[in-house]
């Protein structure tokens, strides 16, 4: 596909398993900028198309491992620096920013992250595989008996989110493991999904191995029902809908936290704490939404509010923008909800409003800092899609209970017994110590465990060595 001329509409259509031209359905939805300007349309494919596509994918052969890894590495360069899916890299980045409100700098950092993830899949697969397990049944170890790492299914469905392009840094691991992937893009920001699928196909991933199936919420359930395994992104309502389904991995609120004990001077850590709250505009599930302090939490909360108040309100395409922009009605709705859930929490920042309307369209979601009176305050479990943090007290007798259910916990402490207790707590997914923000992540480091832990299993195998001269 050639480059889309400036000002021309962008069509996000289905990329089916046959590899022919994109399929444009009769039912389509408009794609607009934050200011309401039309930029294109996205197809909404029917259930019949989804069922036929996934049936064809299931019947297709598995792409050999060498071809998969080579394609992933080549796709990294295409995705990051080539004209793909009709858009040059800079045009694509600006389009994402204008349509989604994600700051341009965040978009570009996310693009680089996804490319790095694609380049490092060989290593990630090795790290995720249990020790003592082989990846190929032809490995000599199977002649004496060994465990082989095998897929639990053939087709993996992805319901992608649209908060940043970085969310597309997880599911490529499924391709690396030999799955066929059916991707449903976000309607808010479908451009990254379309571009990444196109880049992977251009790099050598067969069409029947990777499809793009834009559709509505009703048909989205059909994609999950037809696939063997699935991953979905969303809020607590999405988690509640799918958490009982063992075939579905939910990626919901992270409720990431920071603990500062009395043996650590928080004044030396305030930049790390502020960065944990505001990184990626506060939209990532790894952004800190609660800070618990041993002793009086108010001085830390006030210092944090002072730091976050300095972040400027800028249009998303401004090179210095760090805060997310949303349509004003959406921002106003988030603001109303914040005032409702804040309850008796004391606002130190954002108490009047978090909505800062821009002349160019949309409103910046400004940071909010609230002080709560107890480590059991219900607000500590509230996560919102902007830099919103609840600060409260923690006492040693509280134990680890207030810190449970955290995707990431940064523990600023030197107490070894506490560290061991936090490490052994099943509901704390990732534990960072000292000067590491909750948003720290590198390719090859698990986010919510390795995806391979969900998609793969070990299978015992023993085989006889063929006799000399055997066919």
Written description of the protein model:
By secondary structure, this protein is α/β, with parallel strands linked by helices. It has two domains: 242 residues, Aldehyde Dehydrogenase, Chain A, domain 1; 178 residues, 3-Layer(aba) Sandwich (Aldehyde Dehydrogenase, Chain A, domain 2). 32% of the residues lie in helices and 21% in strands. The longest helix has 17 residues. It is globular and about 70 Å long.
What's the layout of helices and strands?
Elements: E1 10-12, E2 28-32, E3 38-43, H1 47-59, H2 65-81, H3 89-100, H4 104-119, H5 121-128, E4 133-134, E5 146-151, E6 155-159, H6 172-176, E7 180-184, H7 191-202, E8 210-212, H8 217-226, E9 229-233, H9 236-242, E10 248-251, E11 256-260, H10 270-278, E12 288-294, H11 298-309, E13 325-326, H12 328-342, E14 346-349, E15 355-357, E16 363-365, E17 368-371, E18 388-394, E19 406-412, H13 416-423, E20 428-433, H14 451-455, E21 456-461
Parallel strand pairs: 1-3, 4-5, 6-7, 6-9, 7-8, 9-10, 11-12, 11-19, 12-18, 17-18, 19-20
Antiparallel strand pairs: 2-3, 5-21, 13-16, 14-17, 15-16
């Amino acid at each position: 596909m050639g480059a889309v001329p400036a000002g021309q509409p962008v069509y996000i259509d289905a990329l089916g398993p046959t590899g022919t031209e994109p399929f444009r359905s009769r039912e389509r939805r408009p794609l607009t900028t934050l200011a309401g300007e039309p930029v294109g349309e996205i197809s909404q494919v029917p259930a019949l198309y989804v069922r036929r596509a996934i049936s064809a994918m299931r019947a297709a052969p598995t792409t050999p491992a060498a071809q998969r890894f080579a394609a992933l590495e080549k796709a990294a360069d295409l995705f990051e620096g080539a004209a793909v899916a009709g858009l040059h890299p800079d045009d694509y980045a600006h389009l994402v920013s204008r349509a989604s409100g994600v700051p341009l700098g965040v978009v570009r950092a996310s693009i680089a992250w996804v490319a790095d993830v694609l380049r490092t899949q060989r290593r990630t697969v090795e790290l995720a595989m249990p020790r003592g397990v082989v990846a190929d049944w032809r490995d000599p170890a199977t002649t004496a008996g060994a465990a082989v790492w095998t897929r639990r299914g053939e087709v993996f469905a992805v319901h992608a989110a649209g908060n940043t392009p970085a969310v597309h840094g997880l599911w490529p691991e499924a391709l690396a493991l030999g799955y066929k992937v059916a991707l449903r893009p976000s309607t808010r920001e479908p451009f990254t999904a379309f571009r990444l699928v196109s880049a992977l196909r251009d790099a050598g991933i067969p069409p029947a191995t990777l499809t793009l199936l834009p559709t509505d919420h009703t048909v989205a359930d059909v994609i999950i029902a037809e696939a063997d395994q699935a991953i979905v992104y969303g809020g607590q309502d999405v988690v509640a809908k799918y958490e009982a389904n063992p075939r579905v991995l939910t990626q919901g609120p992270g409720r990431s936290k920071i603990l500062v004990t009395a043996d650590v001077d928080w004044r030396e850590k305030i930049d790390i704490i502020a960065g944990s709250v505001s990184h990626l505009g506060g939209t990532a599930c790894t952004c800190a939404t609660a800070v618990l302090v041993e002793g009086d939490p108010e001085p830390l909360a006030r210092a944090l509010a002072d730091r976050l108040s300095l972040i400027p309100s800028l249009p998303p395409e401004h090179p210095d923008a760090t805060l997310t922009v949303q349509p004003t009605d959406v921002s106003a709705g988030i603001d109303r909800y914040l005032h409702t859930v804040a309850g008796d929490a004391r606002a130190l920042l954002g108490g009047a409003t978090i909505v800062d309307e821009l002349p160019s369209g949309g409103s910046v979601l400004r940071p909010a800092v609230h002080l709560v009176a107890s480590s059991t305050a219900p607000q500590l479990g509230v996560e919102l899609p902007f830099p919103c943090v609840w600060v409260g007290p923690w006492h040693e007798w509280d134990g680890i209970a207030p810190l449970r259910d955290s995707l990431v916990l940064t523990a600023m402490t030197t107490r070894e017994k506490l560290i061991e207790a936090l490490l052994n707590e099943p509901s704390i997914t990732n534990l960072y110590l000292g000067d590491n923000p909750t948003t720290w992540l590198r390719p090859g480091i698990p986010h919510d465990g390795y995806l391979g832990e969900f998609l793969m299993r070990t299978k015992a195998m023993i085989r006889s060595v063929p006799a000399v001269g055997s066919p």
